[in-house]
Automatic annotation (TrEMBL):
CDD domains in UniProt: M20_bAS
Keyword tags: Hydrolase
Protein name: Allantoate amidohydrolase
InterPro entries linked: Amidase_Cbmase (IPR010158), Bact_exopeptidase_dim_dom (IPR036264), Peptidase_M20 (IPR002933)
SUPFAM superfamilies linked to this entry: Bacterial exopeptidase dimerisation domain, Zn-dependent exopeptidases
Amino acid sequence: MGYEEMWRDLLPIGRVSGGGYRRFSWTAAERECRAWFAEEAGRRGLTLEQDRNGNLFAWWDVPGGRRDAVLTGSHLDSVPDGGAFDGPLGVVSALAAVDLLRERGVTPVRPLGIAVFAEEEGARFGVACLGSRLLTGAIDPVRARALRDGDGVTWADAMAAAGHDPEAIGPDPDLLAGIGCFVELHVEQGRALETPVGVASAIWPHGRWRFDFTGQGNHAGTTLLPDRRDPMLPFAHTVLAARDAATRHEAVATMGKVRVTPNGVNAIPSAVQAWLDTRAPDDAAVRATVADIRAAAEKAAREHGVEVALAEESYTQVVDFHAELRDRIAATLGGPPVLPTGAGHDAGILSAHVPTAMLFVRNPTGVSHAPEEHAEPADCLTGVEALADVLENLIAK
Ligand code: HGY
Ligand code: MN
Ligand code: MN
């Protein structure tokens, strides 16, 4: 199955009306994506394995065993109504790069693996890069098992329902020890890249926080304004404060997910849960932004007789990619642009354990995490060639 055919088979999976994707971990759509990957790996004679955490690996093995392996790949899960390229471009390109290496007659001297990491978006269970965090020990398996989706289903329940043992999840040092380096190709998620392919220098520090505003549910018609303890008001103040604080600290802050209880038109809410995503070029700016937003939320909550609690759900420190690997890749590709990103990736999690690098493929509009996400076919094919060049340089010597 060539590059175009792989996209033809993958594109319809998990696409919803409006053109976006809903490929959430352990759901039917994501299981279909896993089956697609297994079939493509099988077609290429790659050895398919699933690790204890639900991550998939397709291996082009060599006689010497799984040492100093070169790993590539990305993820197949999506954000709600996400685009077609975020994640899948890295997986399709890795499979197509294997085809290209074989056409070139490349004989690897070390294993080449293609990874599909689980729950990279954290769209269902709330913690981004959950599969790579579990693999590397960056999250406590007890906490991971208990993570719940919007319907109260835990990671453990969902994993078990898919036929896997949630009690087995946790760090896999042996698997990690066999990986010599990881190179992830990903669609660029901003507008900074003006050439078909670029190389990542860093990932901004970023985190997710949950606000819990608790007030008093009541009747929308009979409750006088002074008698209300409406959690929607401090929530609204907090959304506006997030924009102000991000502007002040040259950060970005987003409140894109809110859960209102009971969510009725004629009922004053009893509770509002709202999530904050904050990112900035440095850690101090992220922390200062969140501190300002927290202060504004607490002040508004007091003024409205509402309680508020803030919980940090995940945080990723700044990732400066491995300089030697980055420079080796840049040299292989003839000096493409080298740029940071505000988007998190499994490469960011693995970079604390193995030399890691990222290739970006141009996104002409910069739109991502939306159905309109797009990359030109010519740029994507240039990305496959670039990935094949990089992998050849890494596996054939
Ligand atoms: O949220 C992110 O930056 C990534 O797409 N998971
Ligand atoms: Mn994403
Ligand atoms: Mn991604």
